Every structure is written in C-alpha cells, then in structure tokens.
Amino acid sequence: MITAIVNISLKAGVLDSQGKAVHHALDSLHFKNVEDVRVGKQVVLKLNTDDKEQAMSDATKMCEEILANTVIEDYEIELV
Amino acid sequence: MKVSILQFPGTNCEHDTVHAFEKLGADTEIVWHKSETIPEGTDLIVVAGGFSYGDYLRSGAIAKFSPVMKAVTEYANNGGKVLGICNGFQVLTEAGLLPGALKRNDNLHFISKHHTLKVENNDNIFLEKLNKGDVVNIPIAHHDGNYYIDEASLKDLKTNNQILLTYSDADGAIKNPNGSVDSIAGVCNISKNVFGLMPHPERAMEAILGSDDGVKMLEGFLAS
Asked: What's residue B223's pLDDT?
C-alpha cells in the first residue's frame, strides 16, 4: 500500500481570493510577518500497489483527469 | 423544436428551464444523467443550473463523468446546440466543451440578485435577436462565477467573437460583481454551437417577476 498525498492550489498568477481573505485576517490578528497566503486543498489517496512508479503515474493521471482543473490549478504529488 | 434538459443529482433549475422553453412553444424532456443517449429529435440540449454532486471537489467536476456527458460531447462535436446555464456552464468548462474555468467569486460571497448584462456579440444563434450593446436584466445566483481564462486564450475569444455577455451597469459600462476576467458573464465555443453563461435567462421570463429579458435570449434558439 502506498499513500499519495496530492496538494492542489491555484496557479501562480491566478488570484487566490481565499488566500487574500486569510491574509487579511492574519494581519488583523497582528501576525505582521506574513508575506503571502495561498489556500489549497489536499487529497489523500491510499493506493493498492507497492510500485512507486505505478503509484506516481496513477496519481498523475487522476490529477489530470479529475482532481485538478489544470486551467487554473497546479498539483503536487508526494508518495509516503 | 425539442429541448432536452439534463438533470444530475443536485440540479435544481430544470423545472424553471422547462417552464421557460414551454412558454416559448418548445417541447421539453428532462434527461436523467444516467442516460447514455440524447432523446431522438433533440434540437437543443440545456445543462441546467444547480449544484450537481453538491459542488464537491469543484463545481461541475464530478458531473462531467456522468454517462450522459459522453453523449452530450458527441452531440456537440457533431454540431448539435448545447446551452449551459450557471452550474451547466461550469460543467461544460470542466468537460472541455467551453474554454476557461469558473473560480470562487472574488468577494467570497454567494451573489444572488438581478444584474444588467451587455451583449458583446450577436453573430450567433443564441443572441441574434438582440443587438450588440443591448443591455438585459437577468438574475445571477452563484458562488463560483468568477470566469478565468489565460491571456492568450482571451485574445482568441475576442478575435473569434466568442464573448457573449459581460456584466455591466444599466448603461452598458463595465460593472463586475464577481471578479471575472474582462467582466465576462458568458462565452461560446469557436464553432458557435456550445454556449455557457452564469446568469439565469430562464428566471427572467415574466415581467411581473422582475424581468422578461430572458425571452429575447432563449427565443434565438427557436428561430433557428
């Protein structure tokens, strides 16, 4: 069993309004050293394989087909 | 004229859409998303608004894998007319039948109100009953209506007259409620047979309920 952790976030250059709102909130809580905030989502996949290459290729396919909308989002896959 | 209206789990505008097209004299049929075919003799498919699959993952993301969408894609690729309203627009962008994507509104609020829209291009069957520059009053009701497209593709939209409507004030000047690129409210594909918009023309069919400007828009499909 391999666990794939997929992090999906808006592409750099695409305005992240949720990140901006969180940034404002942090600012009003006096966390003054925050340069930027990006909000994304995480999908955790438990894959029935022990082949890392296979797991990576499957997870990539899943991201391209459904988990991310590559018009506006980037994804990163981490195998653990 | 026969209009087939798609229904996914969570769709909630299919009956308004039936009312709108029947008022205009069309025959309608609601098509459950499990159907693998489009009813014979369909002249227009409408992907109605709502919250298909609870908007899980992303608005419209799961609906694109429903069995009926394969048939819709084939129908569109053969030149069939398809109209996506609100969640239907989101489904069509997710399915790759329309360019761009719909993001969360910039102000993070669900916006539900009447909004004026300016007709940007009318060299298509949907808006041919209106003039370029006309302003229509149509309700909007969405959380994820913030249209995004990259700069290169935006250029293509402009070159090919694919921008249908923009959010405006009553005089046609830009007024952007949700942060959409260039205030875009609706677009079509390059072949001008697939249309999508966030506003709800099917909710603007009776003057006594605030506006009947939707009549002039949806009538375009009946003329052709």
From this structure: 75
* A:15-54 residues touching chain B, CB 8 A cutoff: 15, 17-18, 21
Number of structural domains (chain A) is 1
* Structural domains of chain B, count: 1
Looking at residue A38, which CATH number applies to its domain? 3.30.1280.10
Q: Would you call A17 and B179 a contact, using CB atoms and an 8 Å cutoff?
A: yes
Mean pLDDT of A60-67: 97
CA A14 from chain center: how many Å? 14
> Which letter, b or e, does each residue of B48-65 get, where b requires 16 or more Cβ atoms within 10 Å of its Cβ?
bbbbbbebebbbbbbbbe
pLDDT value of position A52: 97
To the query of whether residue B86 is one of the catalytic residues in this protein, the response is yes
Q: What is the CA radius of gyration of chain B?
A: 16
Among candidate residues B13, B14, B33, B86, the one labeled active-site is B86
pLDDT tens by residue, B199-218 = 999 999 999 999 999 999 99
Rounded mean pLDDT, B39-43: 97
Judged against a pLDDT cut of 70, whether residue B73 lies above it is answered with yes
Selected residue of B57, B94, B176 to mutate for chain A interface (largest A Cβ count, 10 A): B57
Q: Say how far residue A21 (Cα) sits from the centre of its chain.
A: 18
- Residue A7's contacts (CB-CB under 8 Å, 6 or more residues apart) are A40, A41, A42, A75, A76, A78
Q: Give residue B113's domain range.
A: 2-223
Name the β-bridge partners of B102: B147
Residue B33 tokens read as: 């998303």
B202 as an active site residue: the answer is: yes
CATH code for position B126: 3.40.50.880
Over residues B80-109, the mean pLDDT reads 97
